[in-house]
Amino acid sequence: METETEQVLPHVGVRVDADNVRIGWVSALVHSVGPSPDELVDAVREAAARASSSMEDPAVDARKGAVRRMLRFGGYKPSGRAKPASEYLLNAALKDAFPLINNLVDINNLVSLEFMLPMSLIDLDLAGTSSFVVRKGREDEAYVFNPSGQILALADLLLTASLPGDSPCASPVKDSQATKVHAGSRRLAGIVYAPAELADEAAAAAGRMADLLSRFGAVQTAHGVR
After folding, report:
1. Fewer beta carbons within 10 Å, N or C terminal of the chain?
2. pLDDT of 73 strictly over 60
3. In order of start, what are the domains of the chain with their CATH numbers?
4. Torsion-angle region of residue 74: left (phi > 0), alpha (psi -120 to 50) or beta?
């Protein structure tokens, strides 16, 4: 059996089949999943506090608007329960209820809040691949997004699908329960969703995520933008 030290950093390939969308990507070989250390918890709380105090900043509204425009397609309306995950995190920060899950998810949420861009985490072993396509959801596509079996309809929603099967596994709103990271995750991909005009921000967010993973849970990381 392949040991952790023998595992190789996965090469994550992402094809973008959606107009005016740029994707930041991260690959990581993880050595541990568990509660975030104090330093990371402090960084999360500081980011939440900054977000709470920046609500009057026009740049925040501009970023929210740009992300919603990226997701507004066909019959999909990015509002209410269908809003991007980055807005959910901002609302949680405003309510002093920012979630702390584990080191990997906390890093994802921290970077998403800092850049106000929605992000996904995918366990590559559960996905059975490290190749993905980012596209719009088709009619009747859906997946379960939590342990209680709730379903997210994916028609017209920007999403990430695993290749070669073209099976949806993540989105800027909620990720599929089937490929979420867990205590035994060792190979993962992070996906940053950004409108084309924020390509530099997507790249910076991917770099920030890779750096935090290297400090708080990963043996090796790589990142880039498509």
Report:
1. N
2. yes
3. 9-225 (3.50.40.10)
4. left
